[in-house]
Amino acid sequence: MQIEVVKSKIHRVTVTGAELNYIGSITIDEALMEAANMIEGEKVQIVNINNGERLETYIIKGNRGSGEITLNGPAARKVQKGDIIIIISYGIMDFEEAKSFKPSLVFPNEKDNSLQ
What we know:
Blueprint: E1 2-14, E2 17-19, E3 25-29, H1 30-35, E4 43-48, E5 54-62, E6 69-72, E7 84-94, H2 95-100, E8 104-106
Parallel strand pairs: 1-8, 2-6, 3-5
Antiparallel strand pairs: 1-7, 3-6, 4-5, 4-7
Main location: cytoplasm
Subcellular location: Cytoplasm
Active site: 25, 58
């Protein structure tokens, strides 16, 4: 049996931008992506702490060390600059493998989204 489990999480980052007139996606600082073991194009779930919204989109790589977290396209209607969000990706794996799997969890500084 295969199950879906948390693969990676960037916990409590501050949204730095919301660009409605963009194709779509979330732009994430490359350093945060690497720390969380996420890749460009990967599907992610966004959970907005400020308003309870949940949405799915995909990752675009942002400039390394910029702290950028920008929601693009329709997702920009569900967040505002300054909101605190959680970014989660999931993986599908064998049930037995999932029992011992350890996800990549990142807890950046909320003020500037830097790695601590």
